[in-house]
Write a structure and sequence with these properties.
alpha/beta, 12 strands, elongated
């Protein structure tokens, strides 16, 4: 079985060296780039399983690197973990919006980071739709699981893979209340080491993208979220 391939895109050499040492100790195949353009080139050439990506990079910043990687068909299944000092909720929201699969704030625990990388590796290839339902239509919202697309009133809505799974989970059972831990397991993977707050960040992003239909996702205070069919809205 081939060794998992990890690409580190980090301009701080000390941090990069710590990551390289620990990842190689886990017998992963590790490569390193110190700027955005080099990171893009290595990703396209080596097709890594996981990219550890700093945000503030020379040449091309990490957000643009993430956006370009997620739009490249040959590496869309690559998992991207953003590793950055930008830890505000708004920064995380931007990161998830451009396609990040996980977000870790510096300073970080090396042991926890290694576990999060293992969790991402377990999720590689799990973005494919499950089941035979194919298409779900709920009022003006259409989810095509086979094509991994969402439309509202016939217009495409661009969701990240995690946002797609989260909306799919909610819309599949209208009216049912999902607690945050359920949504982590359904949408982010049961192996994901993420905080329940991460679900809130994803929901805010989905609501923004749904526009006038944002209120279809109702917050159930102290519990989680539920989806109401659009034609039931007051």
């Amino acid at each position: 079985m081939p060794r998992p391939k990890i690409l580190i895109v980090e301009d701080d050499r000390a941090i990069a060296d710590v990551l390289i040492y620990n990842l190689q100790a886990l017998e992963y195949e590790v490569s390193h780039a110190s700027n955005g353009p080099e990171g893009l080139e290595l990703a396209q050439r080596n097709l890594p399983d996981v990219v550890i990506l700093d945000v503030m990079l020379p040449g091309i910043d990490g957000l643009e690197v993430c956006r370009r990687l997620k739009s490249a068909p040959e590496i869309q299944l690559t998992k991207i973990l953003m590793l950055t000092a930008k830890g505000e909720e708004g920064d995380q929201l931007v990161g998830f919006n451009v396609g990040a699969d996980d977000y870790v704030v510096k300073p970080f625990s090396v042991r926890i980071l290694m576990e999060r990388i293992k969790a991402l590796l377990r999720r590689v290839g799990q973005d494919e739709p499950i089941g035979d339902e194919g298409v779900i239509i709920c009022g003006p919202i259409k989810i095509d699981r086979l094509k991994h697309r969402v439309q509202v009133n016939g217009e495409a809505v661009e969701l990240t893979a995690s946002e797609f799974r989260l909306l799919d989970s909610l819309i599949s059972q209208p009216g049912r209340v999902f607690d945050r831990q359920e949504l982590i397991e359904l949408a982010l993977g049961s192996d994901s080491l993420v905080l329940e707050r991460t679900v809130d960040v994803h929901v805010r992003s989905i609501r923004k993208k749904l526009g006038a239909l944002a209120e279809c996702i109702e917050t159930v205070r102290g519990v989680g979220y539920r989806f109401y069919e659009p034609d039931r809205q007051a």
